[in-house]
Amino acid sequence: MQVKEVMIRSVVTVTPEQTLRDAIELLQSKHIRHLPVVEDSRLIGIVTDRDIKRATPSLLSGVDREEYDRVLDETKVTQLMTREPITVSPDSGLKAAVKIFIERKVGAIPVVVDGRLAGIVTEIDLLRVFHGMLKD
User: Fold this and answer.
1) CA–CA gap between residue 38 and residue 47 (Å, rounded)
2) How far apart are CA 85 and CA 44, in angstroms?
3) Percentage of residues in the chain with pLDDT exceeding 90?
4) Domains of the chain from N-terminus onward
5) Alpha-carbon distance 61 to 54, whole Å?
6) Within 13 A of 8's CA, how many CA atoms are on the CB side?
7) Each residue of 16-40: pLDDT tens digit?
């Protein structure tokens, strides 16, 4: 089985100049946890819900609303993203992708062809495959 058989082809992405607020809104509205960062269709990074949580100030810690809004509106995705994320090609074997998930402890792997984003495979996609293989 190959990655192209399970990957998501219609990927929600952000650009490096989009804001922390933009990323939060996309993650919440699309119910996703990983946002590949693209520039001219080329993958340059990935930002995750964990990156977002780490960068978002807490109103409970005494930060006032004005400062909270300033951070969300002025922090760019490029400041949060993991640069040069681990990737696979659509023709990569699923077993090789699973090995990356296990060894690198990532939740998603962008799928690229010649540096351009072609899709994404997540741990949930792999669980769906595994679920389909299980007998009741």
Assistant:
1) 11
2) 8
3) 83
4) 3-133 (3.10.580.10)
5) 13
6) 19
7) 999 999 999 999 999 999 999 999 9
- CB–CB of 48/38 below 8 Å? no
Q: What are the E-state strand segments in the chain?
A: 34-39, 42-48, 82-83, 108-113, 116-122
Question: Do the Cβ atoms of 14 and 29 come closer than 8 Å?
Answer: no
Number of residues assigned to the chain: 136
**How is 48-81 classified by DSSP, letter by letter?**
EHHHHHHHSPPGGGT--HHHHHHHHHH-BHHHHS
Distance (Å) of CA 101 to CA 76, 98, 122, 125: 27, 5, 9, 12
Residues pairing with 109 in the sheet: 121
What single DSSP character describes residue 92? S
